[in-house]
Amino acid sequence: MAKMTKKHKEALAKFESNNEYSLLEAIELVKKISYTKFDASVDLSIRLNVDPRKANQMVRGSVTLPHGTGKEKRVLVLCTPDKEEEAKAAGADHVGLDDYVQKIKDGWTDVDVVITMPSVMAKVGALGRILGPRGLMPNPKTGTVTMDVGAAVIAAKAGKIDFKVDKFGIIHSAVGKVSFDANQIRENIAELYSTIIKLKPSSAKGTYVKSVNLSSTMSPGVKVDEKSVTTAS
């Protein structure tokens, strides 16, 4: 296990790591104990009572956070020539098809979101083993396989995020920056949380949300009282 840094120990000393805090208390705590020199990302982890190995218990979707994540999204649009102007006008950083497909096959993945069209999915599908593990594979469920590429680019730039449970049944997502005020972070969390609740699989039995944790880049995690998140949303 990695040796705990002095700053990490100091951060841990500022709160009771076994306590559950209300959402606003947790946000204020995370802002206080964040010790990076840069504007750290605030991250939410929600452990769900699902088995992601079963197709009918996979929880995935997308949501537009009211205040964005504070991170500029680099967007690649893989489309036919007739859609290139629409994608560029909407603010896409990279637009094209065959040349970018080749670049990705050669190992280039320097983007945050990939958007494409149904008609070119055969070409894009071949990139699954490269894009999939990086969470970049376009998917109709998250609105990144669409004929309306312009709207998809605008949504991605405006704070739309995609999420899905990992193999442990946990959803991890950035919900803002430490520099955001507490209410902006709270409203972002409420939007994400209510979306996840709506996606509860009918086959999931018992308590759906097992635990909620909030942290910032490199800071310890703070346990959040799940009831306070429910009332916030």
What is this entry, summarized?
By secondary structure, the chain is of the alpha/beta class. It has 9 helices and 10 strands. The longest helix is centred in the C-terminal third of the chain and has 17 residues, at 182-198.
Describe this structure in words.
This protein is of the alpha/beta class. It is built from nine helices and ten strands. It has helices at residues 6-12, 23-33, 84-89, 98-105, 121-125, 128-131, 149-157, 182-198, 226-232; strands spanning 20-21, 41-48, 60-64, 75-78, 94-96, 113-116, 160-164, 170-177, 209-216, 222-224. The strands form three sheets. It has a five-stranded mixed sheet. Strand 4, helix 3 (84-89) and strand 5 (94-96) form a beta-alpha-beta unit. Helix 2 (23-33) packs across helix 8. It starts with 5 loop residues before the first helix and ends with a helix.
The overall pLDDT average reads 90
Low-confidence stretches: none
Please identify the structural class as seen in this structure: alpha/beta
Q: Estimate the global geometry from the Cα principal axes.
A: globular
Q: What's the arrangement of secondary structure elements?
A:
Elements: H1 6-12, E1 20-21, H2 23-33, E2 41-48, E3 60-64, E4 75-78, H3 84-89, E5 94-96, H4 98-105, E6 113-116, H5 121-125, H6 128-131, H7 149-157, E7 160-164, E8 170-177, H8 182-198, E9 209-216, E10 222-224, H9 226-232
